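Note to self: keep these together.
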Amino acid sequence: QVRLVESGGGLVQPGGSLRLSCAASGSAGSFNTMGWYRQAPGKQRELVATITTTRSTSYADSVKGRFTISRDSAKGTVYLQMNSLKPEDTATYYCNAPTVGNLGRWDWGQGTQVTVSS
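Structure:
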């Protein structure tokens, strides 16, 4: 079973930036399309960004132009650079390999909390 470890979250003011990291055990993070998800309190988990093994990317409309997903295939690590953060970006962020219906292929990690507040 693949183990996912997210890090890099924190408290940031509106307009600020954060960079999240996701480490996947084994070679999982190197040979799969990977995605970043987020879940705000009382809301369903949503997929916000994906990156393929050829580095094609896609974004949810809510983060397009502000977030950038990238990967270091040699390390099996996936990143999410978040700029111009808004209070509505507050959520726990998770990574996983997207499957049909934007579910995650593997067991979820603990996530990393992002709070955008003044």
